[in-house]
Design goal:
5 helices, 74% helix, single chain, 0% strand, 168 residues, rod-shaped
């Protein structure tokens, strides 16, 4: 009888440890998602600032400046629901400017162009880190024990934003 009690206690301790491990791993993933989103948000704001400097440059025409400035202000002032659409619009505006060769090295300060290129690469890396964290959390939250014991608590299911699918 004592042997069965020892085995049962060991199984309960092992189960408790496993559930604690899952809960702390899930908490760590949620924290990683929050920090990766905060870092990505800072990068997006920096890109908007560089874009605003380009829009205020006297080297591009007024219509292009107006379109870019409108996209920048929408991106800076958007709430979380509208964020995807305005970030896509800003990325498309910048891409159109670069494709149309409006932003030539002779017309715009090369430091601004280099900063824009660098920040765009960092945004791509930030998106990759964020989407990997979201995917990991979603996979962990889909496990039976996490759902059955409600280890996620009341935390909302992490989600990706539609602009993350585009290469910014």
């Amino acid at each position: 009888m004592a042997k069965y009690l020892i085995v049962a206690a060991f199984v309960l301790v092992l189960a408790g440890w496993y559930l604690s491990y899952l809960a702390s791993r899930l908490d760590g993933l949620h924290h990683r998602i929050e920090t990766s989103w905060a870092h990505l948000d800072v990068l997006l704001q920096k890109r908007a600032g560089i874009s605003l400097e380009i829009a205020n440059s006297s080297k591009i025409d007024a219509a292009t400046s107006l379109v870019l400035m409108a996209a920048v202000y929408e991106a800076r002032e958007a709430n979380i629901v509208e964020r995807s659409n305005v970030e896509i619009a800003l990325a498309q505006s910048l891409k159109l400017l670069q494709d149309d060769e409006v932003l030539t090295p002779s017309g715009i300060d090369s430091d601004l162009l280099n900063s824009l290129t660098t920040i765009s690469e960092k945004i791509g890396l930030g998106i990759t880190i964020h989407t990997e964290a979201v995917r990991s959390a979603q996979n962990l939250r889909s496990k039976f024990f996490v759902r059955f014991f409600r280890l996620a608590g009341h935390a909302p299911l992490p989600m990706r934003y539609s602009f993350e699918d585009d290469i910014l």
